[in-house]
Design brief:
- The complex is a heterodimer of chains A (323) and B (282).
- Chain A has 323 residues and is mainly α.
- Helices cover 72% and strands 0% of the residues of chain A.
- Chain A starts with 20 loop residues before the first helix and ends with a helix.
- In chain B, 75% of the residues lie in helices and 1% in strands.
- In chain B, strand 1 and strand 2 form a beta hairpin.
- The longest helix of chain B is centred in the first third of the chain and has 37 residues.
- The chains are: A mainly alpha (323), B mainly alpha (282).
């Protein structure tokens, strides 16, 4: 930020006291030049982010082709694509890759459908709306590791209230309560369910913002023309909502594709790597397993997806700018 | 006429049912934390009891255990220290950048702003391995300062984007009038723009602060000793040890941390969402 002169000076160049007046005036003139002031104000932020996002990204490209271990202090030796070939031969990695896609796709489809329903409800007027808004936002605004701990107990314990309710509703028998994290399919369903729970509020408020931006006249006119609820939904509302649904979907894809918190807290990737995803496998390999190079190679598989999402996002932003 | 009103009533009932079902499902874990916080062990661990209500008198024993016999207060303090320092660094760098992108960068402002925002989307799970090496090189492993250095890498992009949008909404004429009167640009920023931007700055503060409270991956990766951890890692990793679960205290720790964050966040949510719609809404 530009320097402000001492408190004694009144606005205007003429008020600068004698000593060093010329230097101060020239500095002031320099700061008044927008072509100089602009970059000076922007650069520190850009440099900080480059140093902590760009440099580590470059380093991870290097680590992925090295043999660096967490125990050794240096950066290891160049080993070419050895890490990638060994990763691609590992069944655990292939399982994690498949899980990542299943996890992302299933959770995002569920999130978008449920969020659209909830957002449509929230455009209506009803009693207690502000309380409802607070309640449905909780999963998104509370720290995710803590919310997930709540679910861990609710599912995986001798005292699971989820099982208790299912039993009370006669959906499951008292004799055989399911082991939610003991069977691969159930564990995967739990992880996806918690993720849907976590991302639903975010998608809902974004879609709600989109819904409220549709002019009332559009819906009214179509209602007058005799269009029913479903026909209005599919022919008018959803097409108008497409850009915002895309945005909500893209953010959701990034959050789901790269998340490891839910899985780490809930299942630790288990049972037997059954719910392992790319990011959690990278953590177990690179940090807990001490194989930095292998972990870096695994986490780099996240990058192509991020690149695709970023390109689509830029296109939307550009289209919005032109319009 | 009567048919229409019957339909209307059905619609209202459907609306209330749907909204209640969503609220119940989404808020249930927090209700559960609330129950577990105040339940006695006898109540909590009796399978014959209905788990959804209190069956015994309420107790403060879980809270007492949490505050007196765990490091919970240390984690709260650590989180606070990291949060405040990160917010400071973020404002120092993001305020000038956000202003300059909105006002001084001309046609480069928008694309550059989007570029900075996109770095917010680079996930911690892509960077934590190289960053752990960098943190080690800086001699910051197992120290809170590693988080202070790394967290601005995601709070700055987000806040620059947020503040850029905010400064754009302030009419240019305000500074221009001041500058015609002989005030320098820098002075106009500090004395005129900053005071009327307090609401925008406050929302940036809240978001930077809540993002640091929520962060999990870096805190888990860089810090191993319990005394240096933040709440989001300390509670789930230390209160669950092997097969010994301090469930009541664990849930209390989750609840006490979550609710204030949720309330803060809620106050500024609309601005947060506006930041995420990336111009897809006009």
């Amino acid at each position: 930020m530009g320097k402000v002169e001492g408190k004694t000076s009144v606005p205007g160049v003429a008020a600068v006291p004698l000593g060093g007046a010329a230097a101060r005036a020239s500095r002031r003139r320099l700061l008044d030049r927008e072509s100089f002031l602009g970059p000076v104000m922007i650069l520190p932020a850009v440099l900080y982010v480059l140093a902590l996002v760009g440099v580590p990204f470059g380093l991870s490209l290097y680590l992925a082709v090295s043999d660096a271990k967490i125990a050794s202090t240096g950066l290891g030796h160049f080993v070419g694509l050895a890490n990638f070939t060994s990763v691609l031969r590992s069944p655990t990695f292939l399982r994690a890759l498949a899980n990542t896609f299943v996890f992302t796709l299933v959770s995002q489809v569920l999130v978008l459908v449920l969020a659209k329903i909830l957002a449509t409800c929230l455009t209506k007027r009803f009693y207690g709306k502000s309380i409802v808004r607070f309640l449905i936002l909780l999963p998104w605004v509370a720290p995710i590791s803590l919310g997930t701990i709540g679910w861990k107990w609710m599912l995986d314990s001798l005292y699971s209230p989820v099982n208790w309710v299912l039993q009370a509703l006669h959906i499951i028998p008292a004799s055989s309560w399911p082991m939610w994290f003991g069977v691969r399919e159930l564990a995967m369903a739990s992880v996806i369910g918690v993720h849907v729970w976590r991302l639903l509020p975010f998608a809902t408020v974004i879609i709600l913002a989109g819904l409220t931006s549709i002019p009332k006249e559009v819906e009214e006119a179509s209602a007058v023309d005799g269009a029913g609820f479903w026909s209005r939904e599919f022919h008018i509302v959803l097409p108008l909502l497409r850009p915002i649904l895309t945005v909500a979907g893209l953010f959701g894809i990034i959050f789901a594709f790269t998340d490891m918190t839910v899985i780490y807290v809930l299942t630790r990737g288990g049972p037997a790597d059954g719910t392992q995803v790319l990011s959690s496998l990278a953590f177990f390999t690179g940090i807990l397993g001490g194989d930095l190079a292998g972990g870096a190679a695994i986490s780099l598989f996240l990058f192509p997806m991020l690149l695709i999402v970023a390109v689509v996002m830029l296109r939307i932003a550009r289209r919005a700018e032109v319009a | 006429m009567r048919r229409r009103s019957a339909r209307y009533i059905a619609g209202r009932v459907g609306l209330y049912l749907t909204v209640s079902a969503f609220s119940a499902l989404l808020a249930f874990p927090f209700y559960w934390m609330f129950l577990a916080t105040f339940k006695t062990d006898r109540d909590l661990y009796d399978l014959k009891n209905n788990p959804l209500i209190f069956n015994d008198h309420l107790t403060l024993a879980n809270l007492k255990l949490l505050f007196e016999r765990t490091l919970y207060t240390t984690w709260l303090w650590n989180t606070f220290v990291v949060g405040v320092t990160v917010v400071g660094i973020t404002l120092l760098l993001a305020l000038p950048a956000g202003y300059a992108l909105a006002r001084l960068a001309g046609r480069w402002g928008e694309p550059l702003g989007i570029g900075i925002f996109l770095t917010y989307l680079v996930p911690s799970t892509l960077l934590f391995i190289p960053l752990s090496r960098i943190v080690a090189l800086l001699g910051l492993q197992d120290s809170l300062w590693s988080l202070v250095v790394v967290y601005p890498s995601f709070t700055i992009p987000f806040c620059v984007w947020l503040l850029m949008g905010f400064f754009k909404s302030i009419p240019k004429e305000i500074e221009e009038a001041a500058m015609v009167d002989g005030c320098s640009r820098a002075r106009a920023i500090v004395q005129i723009i900053m005071p009327i931007s307090l609401a925008g700055i406050l929302s940036a503060v809240i978001f930077a602060f809540t993002l640091t409270i929520q962060e999990f991956v870096y805190a888990l990766t860089f810090i191993t000793s319990s005394g240096e951890q933040t709440v989001s890692v300390g509670v789930p990793t230390n209160l669950v040890r092997g097969d010994v679960f301090f469930w009541g205290s664990l849930m209390a720790g989750c609840l006490i941390t979550s609710i204030p964050v949720a309330i803060l966040y809620n106050l500024f949510l609309d601005r947060f969402i506006a930041g995420f719609t990336v111009g897809a809404i006009k």
